[in-house]
UniProtKB/TrEMBL annotation:
Protein family (similarity comment): Belongs to the class-II aminoacyl-tRNA synthetase family. ProS type 1 subfamily.
Cellular localisation: Cytoplasm
EC numbers on record: 6.1.1.15
Protein name per its UniProtKB record: Proline--tRNA ligase
Catalytic reactions on record: tRNA(Pro) + L-proline + ATP = L-prolyl-tRNA(Pro) + AMP + diphosphate
Alphabetical UniProt keywords: Aminoacyl-tRNA synthetase, ATP-binding, Cytoplasm, Ligase, Nucleotide-binding, Protein biosynthesis
UniProt xrefs under PROSITE patterns: AA_TRNA_LIGASE_II
């Protein structure tokens, strides 16, 4: 491609809306253009990158026996109501774009395709002889993000590979899950990325087992906790650990004490002269289920720990049937305005005790009349602890479960694991932290969707059984930007060879110099004939502008037909290291072929 003929221009200044380096660089280098909030046009250079990523994904998927298809982006609400996720996606998470057609039928723009693929399986799969089967697609998805940000990282429209497998039993599902684990590792290695597979929460997709693939980068939105022995890695939403041991309690007797201005654990510990591990804090949540029922949840946890709201949501989702529901629509710490709608009398916020009475709840329709009481495991074994006295400005100390307070029946793990904690698999290993960008996620769904939507098969024994399902996603456009976030310098992008839009760029310092142009044209033709993708910068620009643009757009190798051609050579610059050497014109093709092959194998 000749750069003079390409829709291409670069910016010298960072765009105002861009917050992280990869977003700034992709806009500045002419890869993407913002069309609206969370909406971007993929310009010619970016489309080439996305095609290369897609091809790597496609090759690895095909190698496992998966079959490519294409599913509709527009999905009828009926299918989502069958699975029970319509309200979850349109009201709770609120990420689905929902609309009505002219016949007043409700539709959604697909953020994911579990319902559609399950409906297909229901219609087409009859016998165990047809299983296992694995279908995938690469296409545009939609999410109504509350705050679109970071360019392609969190947009409202994005390109994704999503695959779905169907099986006769869990063993078959686990085999495909392992195949996908290997395929995803191959994809990311081939794309030239440093990554970390981690245990993950399944979220609204569902299923008991899932794994994320994180590209490690400082701008990552996710925190990854891992051990140096490489035996454990998990998203902080999922991570488990052993907290620090509680310090011996300094309290020897139970009593109520005045503690003004101590509505935080830090101020309480300072006032009482104790450690945070000697305290129990009680956090109040307001939960709304899809049945319309509101439930007030009181979580008691050791004072030095924080509630992990993802883990808490999972616990509350498991309890949904008790409230005539399937899913949690919303969970939040109620502010004074929210409390005013259900509190029978003012709550002593900051001073609540574990036995906060149900009389604080006014009796009204669709409001559970009693607190749902949960206690985190970190608080269960505490003795002689300090906690709220249920009176503003007062706490009690020397309290014990079974004496002053009833230990809740529901003991849960809802604490947030953190760097510095001990690992569960080996307490000598200490959790470390890193930032990551999620670019892939694989799930063992089990029979969640097949049971809800009646996707069954007839077994060899003649039984009608629900299909076991797996789900496997790769963010194609997100992966492309993650590659930039992981590899750039002060001059611009540094693309891995495998997914660079072009492998070589030829810069002609002076296009009016016939010798420079003749050499450039010869190399341009020779490289193309050798199967090397090449960009020829034949623009009427100064040499300095061309060099800056070449660095900014991040093409792996730059050839310069400058002064060296008088001695039968051209300058060859490697973008990654900026190392420069002169190469004989006749040797350029073979030298680059060797370097490209070496880079692809690295």
């Amino acid at each position: 491609m000749r750069l003079s003929q390409m829709l291409f221009n670069t910016l010298r200044d960072d765009p105002a809306e861009a917050e992280i380096p990869s977003h700034k660089l992709l806009v500045r280098a002419g890869y993407i253009r913002r069309i609206g909030s969370g909406l971007y046009a993929y310009l010619p250079l970016m489309w080439r990158v996305l095609q290369k990523v897609s091809q790597i994904v496609r090759e690895e998927m095909n190698a496992t026996g998966a079959q490519e298809c294409l599913l509709p982006q527009l999905q009828p609400s009926d299918l989502w109501q069958e699975s029970g996720r319509w309200d979850t996606y349109t009201k709770a998470e609120g990420i689905m774009f929902a609309l009505q057609d002219r016949q007043k039928r409700e539709l959604g723009l697909g953020p994911t395709h579990e319902e559609v693929i399950t409906a297909i399986a229901r219609d087409m799969i009859r016998s165990y002889r047809q299983l296992p089967v694995h279908l995938y697609q690469i296409q545009t998805k939609f999410r109504d993000e509350i705050r679109p940000r970071f360019g392609l990282m969190r947009g409202r429209e994005f390109i994704m590979k999503d695959g779905y497998s169907f099986h006769t039993d869990r063993e078959s599902l686990q085999q495909t899950y392992q195949d996908m684990d290997r395929a995803y590792r191959n994809m990311l290695r081939r794309c030239g990325l440093k990554f970390q597979p981690v245990q993950a929460d399944s979220g609204a997709i569902g299923g008991g087992v899932s794994q994320e693939f994180m590209v490690l980068a400082e701008a990552g939105e996710d925190e990854v906790l891992y051990t140096e022995d490489s035996q454990y890695a998990a998203n902080v939403e999922k991570a488990v650990s052993l907290p620090a041991d509680a310090q011996p309690s300094p309290f020897t007797e139970y009593k109520k004490v005045e503690t003004p201005n101590t509505n935080t654990i830090a101020t309480l510990c300072e006032a009482l002269g104790c450690d945070a591990t000697n305290t129990v804090k009680n956090v109040l949540y307001q939960t709304v289920y899809d049945s319309g029922m509101t439930v007030l949840v009181l979580v008691s946890i050791r004072g030095d720990q924080e509630v992990n709201e993802v883990k808490l949501t999972n616990e509350l989702t498991a309890l949904a049937p008790e409230y005539g529901a399937k899913a949690v629509l919303a969970i939040a710490v109620p502010d004074p305005e929210a409390q005013s709608k259900w509190a029978a009398k003012p709550l002593p916020l900051g001073y609540i005790d574990p036995g906060l009475g149900d009389e604080y709840i006014s009796q009204q329709e669709n409001l559970a009349p009693k607190f749902l009481r949960l206690v985190d495991r970190t608080a269960v074994d505490l003795q002689n602890f300090a906690t709220g006295a249920n009176e503003t400005g007062y706490h009690v100390m020397g309290a014990n479960w079974g004496e002053q307070f009833v230990l809740p029946d529901r003991i849960v793990d809802v604490r947030t694991a953190k760097a510095g904690d001990r690992a569960v698999h080996d307490p000598t290993q200490i959790l470390q932290t890193a930032r990551g960008i999620e670019v892939g996620h694989i799930f063992q769904l089990g029979t969640k969707y097949s049971e809800a939507m009646n996707a069954t098969f007839t077994s060899e024994q003649g039984e009608e059984l629900p299909c076991f399902m797996g789900c496997y996603g790769v963010g194609v456009s997100r992966l492309a930007q993650a590659a930039v976030e992981q590899s750039y310098d002060k001059n611009g992008i540094i693309w891995p060879v495998a997914i660079a839009p072009y492998t070589v760029i030829i810069c002609v310092p002076n296009i009016t110099d016939s010798q420079q142009m003749d050499v450039a044209e010869k190399l341009y033709q020779d490289l193309q004939q050798a199967g090397i993708e090449v960009l020829l910068d034949d623009r009427k620009e100064r040499a300095g502008v061309k060099f800056k643009d070449a660095d900014l757009i991040g093409i792996p190798y730059r050839l310069v037909t400058g002064r060296a051609i008088k001695s039968g050579k051209v300058e060859c610059v490697e973008r990654k290291t900026l190392a420069s050497e002169e190469v004989a014109i006749d040797d350029v093709v073979s030298v680059l072929q060797d370097r490209i092959q070496t880079a692809l194998k690295a």
